[in-house]
Amino acid sequence: MRSLLVAFVAVLALACSAPAVPRDTAAPPPLSEAPSLPSFVRAVAPAVVRITAHVPRNRPSVLTLGPTRIGAGVIFDPAGYALTVGYIVMDADTILVGLRDGQTVPARLVGMDLEHGLGILKLDGAGPWPTARLGDSRRVAVGDPTATLGVEESNELKVTTGSVQAIRSFAGYWEYSLDRAIIVAPANPAFGGSPLVNARGEVIGITSLRLGEPPHVNLAIPLEVFTEAREEVLKTGHLQPKGPRPWIGVYTVETSEGLAVAGGSPVGPAAEAGFQQGDLILRLNGEKVEGQEDFYRKLWKSRPGEELTILVLRENRFHAVKLRPIDRYKMLAPER
Question: Tell me: the pLDDT tens digits for 127-167?
Fold first, then answer.
């Protein structure tokens, strides 16, 4: 198990390294490639944006995500509301959005959905802004053709056409789980925040992760998780969290011996409670933990501030670790 944990920590360090500082483009990127793109891609391309987020160095997420982050997003309303993946804009105090015509405009964060991993921005200015149609991701099936519209650091569009490889649940080591995720191939190298588009030219997901060994696949967050939130954003101009999940900040990996602690957030309750790398998580409040997804289900039945007891096996001895999960939304920088 030790070798598995060492390999996991190495991958984690690579995944959490800080993005490069962006280089400003002196001229608008040409869209000369547009005629060669499928029509369903051309329908969405004008609404795809580059996002550059700057985060104060004293914010918690800088420790794993860095102070400068670059990714993509898509404008879904003429008033200038855009959707992206949450880790790009988390904790940001300055956000710049690059449009397809070369303009760069400021934007502000109006909402985070930490449970699913989405961020919602509002571009400065009345617009109207170019928009993409949002589709029904619940109708997506394995084998459906797709395109992932990424944006490179130079603000040039990076399009990858492919298909849906799987639709399945997904659990990540950082206390993250989706009941339904869209897996597509081939992977887009500029995947972070990139809209996933169906053959009707509708956005059906926001690309979040690159998974597996080469040739990689991409994971997209299905847009169905955003349907209700969209109406709230357009009505109120912001998104309020509903029943936030309790968070302890522990990283876990499944091994042949059980669910093992591989690390954790330095600012989370788990670090303060004294979890150690290699601890095997056996029980939560007396209930047996069967694996990573089961651990999350049991953890999320509790509430922020409620004391939990987690039984771990450490060096052949049992230890009862007590801690209180927190509301992670309260750690984020104030909305601007």
Answer: 899 999 999 999 999 999 999 999 999 999 999 999 999 99
Is the same domain home to 14 and 110? yes
Are 195 and 207 spatial neighbours (Cβ–Cβ below 8 Å)? yes
CATH of the domain at 262: 2.30.42.10
Tell me if 153 sits within 8 A of 124, measured CB to CB: no
Domain membership of residue 184 as a residue range: 133-225
DSSP E strand stretches across 78-175: 81-85, 94-98, 104-113, 118-123, 133-134, 145-151, 157-172
Query: pTM higher than 0.85, yes or no?
Result: yes
Question: Which tens digit of pLDDT belongs to each residue from 62-75?
Answer: 988 999 999 999 99
Sorted by sequence, the CB contacts under 8 Å of residue 51 that are 6+ apart come out as 69, 70, 71, 72, 73, 82, 84, 88, 89, 95, 96, 97, 98, 107, 121, 193
Q: Are residues 253 and 315 in the same domain?
A: yes
Residue 37 and residue 12: Cα distance in Å, rounded? Answer: 35
Claim to verify: residue 42 and residue 56 sit in the same structural domain: yes
